[in-house]
TrEMBL record, chain A:
Protein's name in the database: Protocatechuate 3,4-dioxygenase, beta subunit
Pfam families to which the protein is assigned, alphabetical: Dioxygenase_C, PCDO_beta_N
MF GO annotations: ferric iron binding; protocatechuate 3,4-dioxygenase activity
Family, similarity comment: Belongs to the intradiol ring-cleavage dioxygenase family.
GO BP terms: 3,4-dihydroxybenzoate catabolic process
Keywords annotated in UniProt: Dioxygenase, Oxidoreductase
UniProtKB/TrEMBL annotation, chain B:
All residue ranges annotated as the Intradiol ring-cleavage dioxygenases domain in the record: 48-76
The protein, known as: Protocatechuate 3,4-dioxygenase, alpha subunit
Family to which this protein belongs: Belongs to the intradiol ring-cleavage dioxygenase family.
NCBIfam families documented for this protein: protocat_alph
GO molecular-function terms, A-Z: ferric iron binding; protocatechuate 3,4-dioxygenase activity
PANTHER family: DIOXYGENASE, PUTATIVE (AFU_ORTHOLOGUE AFUA_2G02910)-RELATED, PROTOCATECHUATE 3,4-DIOXYGENASE ALPHA CHAIN
Keyword Heme: no
Keywords of this entry: Dioxygenase, Oxidoreductase
Length: 234, 199
């Protein structure tokens, strides 16, 4: 059996965070119970190209009704790898986000900013055999939330990744360089200071597509696994 | 220097149209839903249902649950489980996803099959991952079955949990007119706080 590296609590936010109010009733209050790594499942759902539609990687097109979505077009790309520096090919990424005005298409979003009839804000892509992914979207706007007076979320894109086993599962948020709201955001600030920079994408002129979209690079590191098959007999 | 883990962030309140849009009545597809089993799937067909409660005992209406399990023969549909003496079931993948806000009681419901034990001497179980607004890292728990008392007592993970907390891992079996139902509630905090594993 193979062994998986644990969650690195120097990199991960705590369950209960003073600044982010909803954590006080929703984060577990007792210690997590250790599972002997030899007894933990070393498996998880694997997905193939069948879950990716032809426009799923292009949020500038997958919600069009009668025109182009409003806002600044961007292309987001990067590598998904594990802690050993190994690329993770064929890993499913799901993304969702607000539109350029900071409004989600979600029925429960009450923010008084316009919905864009041509923007859905949800998509999927898969890493290639080098562990690289790429999708097109509109730069999301900031939006207010009820955590504290005058609270605003920085621009962000929600990411959901699987990786090789259920233990490598990650849901996170990608932020943008130079956003002045980062310093006031308890969700971003919940992350240990030394690890926060890993959530901020990097602007790249190389990735930028001339005359079309600004480029951002966001690499994602999942927990390390070694894929050793279970024995063929018991 | 080897790369360090990307930090986790909350799923937030507005994930439904991205992760489980079909269930939330948005007009696009999702990668997996709450029904894992079809008529042809081998094994005992069960319904798995429950609710998620916060530290005040209030029902959580915006959680997302994912389950992952072995098939009736105790094999996982994954390349790391290459045990040829246990059959794969072409009609069972083993992964499901369900939100809690879609019905009035904020229940999650999965239709699936009872897994077989994945190893000799282990009890059957279903792995559960829970995400929600206010949860900066997802939590992992396991559903064991209350009609498997002997197997649970012998199971190395179940039996490693403090005896007074083992009950939080047990789904209760009911016979209903529409089939076998297991009920399993998740308590994020409090006296009945569910055991969450450091997987
Ligand atoms: Fe958000």
């Amino acid at each position: 059996m193979s062994v998986l590296s644990g969650r690195d609590w120097k990199s991960q936010p705590p369950y209960i965070d003073q600044g982010y109010k909803s954590t006080s009733l929703r984060g577990p209050s007792r210690s997590l119970v250790k599972i002997d790594p030899e007894l933990a499942e070393m498996t998880g759902p694997a997905f193939g190209d069948e879950v990716i539609g032809s426009l799923d990687h292009d949020l500038t097109r997958n919600g069009r009704v009668n025109g182009e979505p409003l806002g600044e077009r961007i292309v987001v790309t990067g590598r998904v790898l594990d802690e050993n520096g190994q690329s993770l090919p064929n890993t499913l990424i799901e993304v969702w986000q607000a539109n350029a005005a900071g409004r989600y298409i979600h029925k429960k979003d009450q923010h008084d900013a316009p919905v864009d009839p041509n923007f859905l804000g949800a998509g999927r892509c898969m890493t290639d055999d080098q562990g690289r992914y790429r999708f097109y979207t509109i730069r999301p706007g900031a939006y207010p939330w009820g955590n504290h007076p005058n609270a605003w979320r920085p621009n962000h894109i929600h990411f959901s990744l699987f990786g090789p086993t259920i233990a490598t599962r990650l849901i996170t948020q990608m932020y943008f360089p130079g956003d002045p709201l980062l310093a006031f955001d308890p969700i971003f600030e919940s992350v240990p200071e030394a690890a926060r920079g890993r959530l901020i994408s990097e602007f790249s002129l190389d990735v930028t597509e001339e005359g079309f979209a600004l480029g951002y690079v966001f690499d994602i590191v999942l927990r390390g696994t070694q894929a050793t098959p279970m024995e063929g007999t018991e | 220097m080897s790369p360090r883990q990307t930090p986790s962030q909350t799923i937030g309140p507005f994930f439904h149209y991205g992760l489980n849009p079909v269930e939330a009545n948005y007009p696009h597809s999702q990668i997996a839903g709450h029904c894992l089993a079809s008529d042809q799937t081998l094994g005992e067909h069960i319904r798995l249902t429950g609710r998620v409660f916060d530290g005040n005992g209030a029902v959580v209406e915006d959680a997302l649950l994912e389950i992952w399990q072995a098939n009736a023969a105790g094999r996982y549909a994954h390349p790391n489980d290459a045990r040829s003496n246990r059959a794969l079931d072409p009609h069972f993948h083993g992964f499901g996803r369900c939100g809690t806000g879609a019905n009035e009681q904020a229940r999650f419901t999965f239709c699936t099959i009872k897994p077989g034990p994945a190893q000799p001497g282990h009890a059957p179980f279903i792995s559960v991952t829970v995400f929600m607004r206010g949860l900066l890292n997802h939590v992992y728990t396991r559903i064991y079955f209350d009609d498997e008392a002997a197997a649970n007592a012998a199971d190395p993970v179940f039996s490693s949990v403090a005896p007074e907390r083992q009950v939080t891992l047990l789904a209760k079996r009911y016979h209903t007119p529409s089939g076998i139902e297991y009920r399993f509630d998740i308590h994020m905090q409090g006296d009945q706080e569910t055991v969450f594993f450091d997987l």
